Amino acid sequence: SETLIKGERRINGQITEADGPVRPAVSDPDGLLKRSRELLDLFWEIAKPERETRLQAAEKLVEQLKKSGEADELNYAVKRLVNGLSHTREQARTGYSATLAQVLSVFEEISLQSTLDQIKEKHNLQTANKKQIRNVVFGNFFGVLALSQSSRLHKETQVLLECIKLLQTLSQYREHLRELPRKTMVDILSETSEEVFEEVLLNALQTDLTCALSSPEQLELLLVAMQKFPSVIKPAKLKKLLGTANIISANTLPRLVEVLKTAARSVKKESVLPSVALDLLHVSLREDSFELFWKEAVISGLLSDPPGPCHYLVFRLLGVALPLLSVSQLQFVLSGEVMRRYGEHVASAQLPERFKFSPEMGEYVNSFMQSCREPERQLTVILAFTQLTHQGYPAVPSHWKVVEHMEPKALRQYIAWLKEAFCQPQLDKCLEFSTRKQREGQESTVPNETCVFRFRKWIVPRLTSIVENNRIKKDEELVMGIARFIFFHAFFDTKKATAGIPETTCSLSVPLDSTTRGITSSAFYSLLQHLNVLPVLDDSAEAGAGSKRRALGVMADGSMWVHRLAEFADALLKQDAHVQNTRTFTEEHTQAWDSMLQSVEMLMKKMKKSPAPEHTAFQHLFLIVGIQMFMAPEDSVELLKDLRSCMEKAQAKKSKKKKKEADCEQEPHWVEVVVEILLSLLSQPSRLIRNVCKTAFSRVCPHLTQPALSAILNIELDLKLCAGSSLHSHQRTEDITMKFIMTSHFINLCYQDEGESDSSDDDADDEAMEEEQEEVDQNFRLELMKVLQGQNELATEEDGGEDEQEMDDEAMMKLDKNLATLFGEQKKKLQAKKDEKERLRREKMLVRDFKIKVLDLVEVFLIKQGSSVLVLGMVEPLLSVIENGMSSESGQQEMDFLRRAAAIFRNQLCRGKQYCKEVEGREAELHEMLERLIGRAQKLRDSSVALYYFSAALYVVKVLRGVVKETDASQAAEVNMGKADVERVTNCFRDALTSFMTRRKSPLTGDMFIDLFNRFPAVCVNLLDTAVENITAGVREHQQSQACAMLLRALQSKDVKQLIPSAQWTKLCQKTAQQLIQCLQHVEHKNKAVHERTVKALELCQYLVRTIHTQKVEVNLDPLRDALRSMNADGSLQKAGQLEDTYWSVMKLFGIQKPKVEKVKKVVEEQTEQEAPKKKKKGFLPESKKRKNRKKPQVLEGKEATETAAGAGGVEGGKKKKKKKNKRKGQGAQSEAQSPNKKAKTEPPQSKKQKKKQKQAGGDQASAE
Q1: I need a labelling partner for 524 at 20 to 30 A (CA). Which of 449, 512, 879, 1056 fits?
Q2: What string of DSSP letters covers 453-502?
Q3: Could you tell me where the beta strands, DSSP code E, fall in 1004-1050?
């Protein structure tokens, strides 16, 4: 083995001739060293940090040992693995231990006794010093671990006994191994047979079992032995060991509490439940002493400590105990002090940077709910956590997801309990907890009404979350029951109970206040929003539908959820003797409600005969607006009237429309009224209404007219009239927007906290005040002068023309009163200005929010009707919105609006798959629009806005071209452009390209024209001459480089090549070559722009030369080659870089290779560069300016450095002399540099230890040199 180790070092190059005297050659008759190269490499891989690498190396080692079958290699491998068990790195120790276990498991000829002897011999605990003890301890432990994992330990009882004794010895080194030896003993016991335990291990473990109540590890060892070998450790044996026949008893509980506290502190950082605590819980259940254990050990023992590890152990014990307890035991545990302490922890942990145990408890409860299938036990646990309250508010969140695994029966009972608790809250049955400040009297107690309000405030979102959670198993009856309950208590009161309305059977013990009703009504509309997108709950109905589109917002029978709720509301309105509406309906309201239901019934009948999207849209709108009557009756009545008249117009027959066409010219189309209604609904701050409006609008999109679309665009354009919009539509849009401002402003005032608004606007008010102080009102100045002058005149008259004297008290009081009145009026004026400014700001914010909502309708129309002719009228208005947004304020809301509008324009309009194909008779209009867009793009200042205008122009060209059909290459370019006038379009883009090339600051970019060339080859062909000319005629180098890039992209296009005849192609190549010659002659790389132009020109040149050579075009390239040669006349293009690489790629096409640089020159240059700094070392800084550090050794130079080679004594002597010389020189330099009045600071004297260290460091430095 020593030979192998020596051979490994020699193979790896670790032993050289410099290591010491040359040893005699090692005899290797078997050639083992030559064959084991791969074997030695595997031991290095076993110690690597990567787990996968270690596992693969272990497998390879076992396979190689199997193949070789040599005993020497096997013994060497075992020895290497045993040596590696005490490695300093944890991953290496783990790798060697696992590999040793695998080797012992595969090769049974290896004796476990010999292996254990090797482990003890190599890692001797008796001879190890303090520095080695840690590694030695780990070596012994991982050795025993490898033996236990080899699955052979139970076969050799003597080795098993020695391993147990060794683990007992290792348990003394707790600072290194902690509880690992005890856990390993437990694992060994769990795999040992009862016979072996009784005959071999019982006597060896006698001491540990007798002291079981002293430490968690020993107690766990006893509990595992009791569980594994119950016939061996009987009550009689247990009484002999511990003095008691039961583990849980009055005598053992105090010691058990101490053991549990020790275990809790030991796992403080790991945040886990100690295994000994779980074992004690199982023992208490087996011995039927659970209540005694819970009361004495848990409540009286562990909870007596301050909040900390012991409390967390109790909480974890509670979590793991839930699946093990019966209903009565669950009620006992969940209604006691442990739950109260858990509630206190939840309340105190809400502060920042506090440890929160609630997520872990949620996992415990979720695991219990998932594994338990008994409804009674599930309900017990859920109700216990729900009834854990603080001032009426439960400690668990209202959206607690543990109810996902509840059985249907338990879920129904839980919902029934929630409804009853909402109506008749019995807070005395809840487990109320208080905080430390409340117990100490630092916080006042809250009244019972507040607790009831907080409890109801939690119950309402708890009910809605059950419906909104799609993972909870529920049926339609359950969902409808929750929706009816919330709707009833949001808008109705019970007069007299009736069996026809189940919600009236449970009376309210405490009346609902306005705040609770507001919360309940908001929860109802949120629930209604979810019901509108709820899939069918009946699986059979979905399965029967087959491949049909999945229906949302409907029940299994096809009726909508909102319709069922409307029917329930109608039944409540008709039961005047039993229920009462919180908002009394007038006769007009009742008529509107009845009319709404009649319209819905009529639409349902028509849907059965002939289904149509507009019918569903009207039905949905009627129901949603009708439900809104309980929140805002007046507005809903007006909307219902407009909606009904709109529906009647839509349902009218075509013949009647033709007869009354002359009479109805002034009346708006029904779609226009629908759009106006949708815009009015969008004024309400409701997500439900917003989504309903989007859905309804998507269904009436096919019937949309130009005035209706103009009404939407007018809002986006700040009420400016678009082309084709009518005065009537403009006025109606103004009314809608003003109504939105008033409605939203009123809602914000109702729910706004004045304190927050005041504090949020302090900065703005301060700025306004500063501006107003700078610009003093001239009228106020004049009024102030009048008051002061009037007082002076009065004082003069009273004095009788005498000299000025001091005013009396009456005159002074009169002056103060006049000044106070004047300043009070001025303050009111300033406040009025502030209020007006704030009002305008709020209105602007509300209008912007309204516009963001209206963008939803624009997006829906572009998605649903992207091929409509009306889309053409949206191009310029949307561009105006983007342009105005770029130049407006940069607030967050404005940026969101602009980003949304730009995304809709780019993705849904310009890049949409659908576009208008019906351009018959609109060619002239589209060409004029194209010219306007290109002209506007050239006049802008911002390139980002110009990009949108240019994209719109390309969209117009795409519309004019129409559908592209495959045509022969011989056909003319005009054939591929459809209805577009190629000459007119070309002139338009040629002017734009010329403007870009001749203007120094142009908003256009080269990428815009490259996109044009890629999408429309017919236009590209006509613009090639302009691009070629501007290779040299561009106003700046940037434009010239962009011209090269455009031309390169055009020449690479196959479509462009097909449209150009061969003669014209030859002429184009010749002209391009001439332009490149002019561009590449006399190139001086002044700046980055010139460098970019040269690179682009060379790229174009490379493609041009390759194309000419490949296609054998008759073009003379000699002048171009000469121009390229002249670029490298001075040899400046020999280095590496993009420009140089491109240049030599072009020259390679002419047969000229890049010359190779001689390496000798580089070596000479490097030597000169290295020698140069050596000459400049002297005189950089005077010694007085250098920072000195006496602790670091000085580097010796010159003659004194040669003295260090004499030996160790000479080194030290030379070092001292050098220090003295440097010190004298430094002092002399300082004395010369400083003034005579100042003295140089001397360094403090060094201690003997520092001098000794400095000498050693100097000696090491000298020897290294």
Answers
A1: 449
A2: HHHHHHHHHHHHHHHH-TTS---HHHHHHHHHHHHHHHHEEESS-BTTBG
A3: none
H or E stretch covering 990: helix 982-998
Q: Helices marked H in 107-230 — which ranges?
A: 112-122, 133-149, 157-170, 174-177, 180-190, 194-196, 202-204, 206-210, 216-228
**Among candidates 886, 999, 1010, which has minimal Cα distance to 938?**
999
Q: Looking at 249-339, which runs of residues are DSSP E strands?
A: none
Name which of 957-971, 997-1011, 1140-1154 the model is least confident about: 957-971
Instruction: Tell me if 866 sits within 8 A of 912, measured CB to CB.
Output: yes
Q: Is 339 in contact with 299 (CB distance < 8 Å)?
A: no
Mean pLDDT of the chain: 78
| 192: Cβ contacts below 8 Å, ≥ 6 apart | 154, 160, 201, 228
Inter-residue contact 693 to 856 (CB < 8 Å): yes
CA gap 837, 275 in Å, rounded: 68
Residues 6+ apart with CB under 8 A from 505: 497, 499
Q: Which two tokens stand for residue 704?
A: 């949309």
Token digits of residue 34: 């030559």
pTM of the model: 0.68
pLDDT 10s digits, 950-1003: 999 999 999 998 876 544 444 444 446 888 889 999 999 999 999 999 998 899
Mean pLDDT of 284-295: 92
- Between these two residues, 635 and 740, which has the higher pLDDT value? 635
Kind of pairing between the strands at 492-494 and 431-432? unpaired
Give the amino acid at 654. K
pLDDT of res. 409: 94
- Give tens-digit pLDDT for 1178-1202: 555 565 655 655 544 444 333 333 3
Q: What's the pLDDT band for 769 if we cut at 50, 70, 90?
A: very low
Rounded CA-CA distance 630/627 in Å is 6
Closest alpha carbon to 1149 in 1095, 1094, 1098: 1098
Q: 127: burial class by Cβ within 10 Å (0-12, 13-18, 19+)?
A: exposed
Alpha helices in 1117-1207 (DSSP H): 1118-1127, 1138-1149, 1159-1175, 1198-1203
Contact 276, 258 (CB under 8 A): no
CA-closest candidate to residue 1085, choices 1146, 1140, 1162, 1034: 1140
CB 464 within 8 A of CB 482: yes
Percentage above 90 pLDDT, the chain = 26
631 residue type, one letter:
M
Q: What is the dihedral of CA 890, 892, 896, 901, to 10 degrees?
A: -20
At residue 553, the pLDDT reads 83
Who contacts 555 (Cβ-Cβ below 8 Å, separation ≥6)?
A: 476, 536, 537, 538, 561, 564
How distant is the alpha carbon of residue 420 from its chain centre?
A: 41
Write the CA distances from 140 to 93, 97, 131, 133, 173, integer angstroms.
11, 10, 16, 11, 12
What are the φ and ψ backbone dihedral angles of 211, each rounded to 5 degrees?
-95, 35
In this prediction, residue 1224 carries a pLDDT of 46
What's the Rg (C-alpha) of the chain? 46
Q: Locate tokens 């045509």: which residue?
A: 967
Cα separation, 1094 vs 1141, whole angstroms? 12
Question: Is the pLDDT confidence value at 223 over 80?
Answer: yes
Q: Alpha-carbon distance 165 to 186, whole Å?
A: 13
- Tell me the CB-side half-sphere exposure of residue 92, using CA atoms within 13 A: 19
Quick check: 491 and 630 in contact, CB under 8 A?
Answer: yes
Measured CA to CA in angstroms, residue 603 lies from 552, 599, 609 at distances of 19, 6, 10
* Pairing of the two strands 431-432 and 388-390: parallel
Contact between residue 459 and residue 421 where contact means Cβ atoms under 8 Å apart: yes
- State how far the Cα of 2 lies from the Cα of 458, in Å rounded to an integer: 77
Residue 1214's pLDDT is what? 43
Distance CA 82, CA 74 (A): 12
